[in-house]
Amino acid sequence: MAVQSLRALSYTETDKMTWVMVSKNDTKTLKSLKVKFGFHDVDLEDTAPPIQSPKLATRDDYIFMILQFPVFDRVSKIIKTAEVDFFIENNLLVTVDTSKVLPLQELYERFQRTKGKLVKENVTADDVPHLMYIILDTLLTSIYPMIRHIATDVDKIEAQIFTNLEKDLIRELLRVKTNIVNIRKSMQGHKAVIRKLIEVSEQRFPNIKRFEEYLDQLVDITKDIWDNLQLQKETIDALHETNTSLVDYKMNEIMKTLTIFMGIIFPLSLIVGLFSMRVEGIPFVGHSYGFWLILLILIISGAGLVWYFRKKKWL
Prior knowledge:
Layout: E1 2-6, E2 9-13, E3 18-22, H1 27-37, H2 41-47, E4 55-58, E5 63-73, E6 78-88, E7 92-96, H3 102-113, E8 119-120, E9 123-124, H4 128-141, H5 143-160, H6 167-187, H7 190-204, H8 211-275, H9 290-311
Parallel strand pairs: 3-7
Antiparallel strand pairs: 1-2, 2-3, 4-5, 5-6, 6-7, 8-9
Helix pairs in contact: 1-2, 4-8, 5-6, 5-8, 6-8, 7-8, 8-9
């Protein structure tokens, strides 16, 4: 086996195939891919930024495929979308991974260490189709830990939502909701692309035993991931609505309290204002117990307002 690294392009060769890992998609690197392998200009343009939608295109000499995969950012704790491009030939596989998707990078390093002898669940990467299956299976199964982590976050939010309406909880709820949306967005086209890959593989790799069966398993995995995400989406949407309702209820209670408070204070302030007017004939002005009499009027008025609000069930 030969291992060769040319900056953005890393070659790993075995007796039966070559796996090229590309870590950049700048103009220089894409021109190099065109010169070395003769890839179509349209496919190279799709490989360049920005991120493209999942697709599969068949050419005379190769299959071009774009898939998106979720990547967890440990700093922001946000799941982002990464694009991986595949150029698939009979004896050559070129993967363009500018986001350094960890499961794919680890698999490539293991491919180098084992001299191309990758084995996963009794499937040996002794040709390009089976190597593709192992890559896709590894990338798809790596999503399950993210889903389990999201499920744990959802359970924590559900446990706190009725006792804690602080900004941190709301921020956490929105973060989890964003992560679910981003995974769903990256997974949306997988089933259709893999089904198309099954159709194309029947013609391109007719002698590969059980390959179609393996790809069918990948379709089942994508369906299972989507179903899990759908459940988490429905749960987090329900929690979001519940949280919004609780926040609205809390705000309404605050506004109600303030309104009642102003409803009590305003009449009392009016009474105080009337007794403070410097005109003839104001009751109790100059009386030896005038202050206490006015205070008594205020207390009776305040108590009367409280009684009235309670009778109306506003308090």
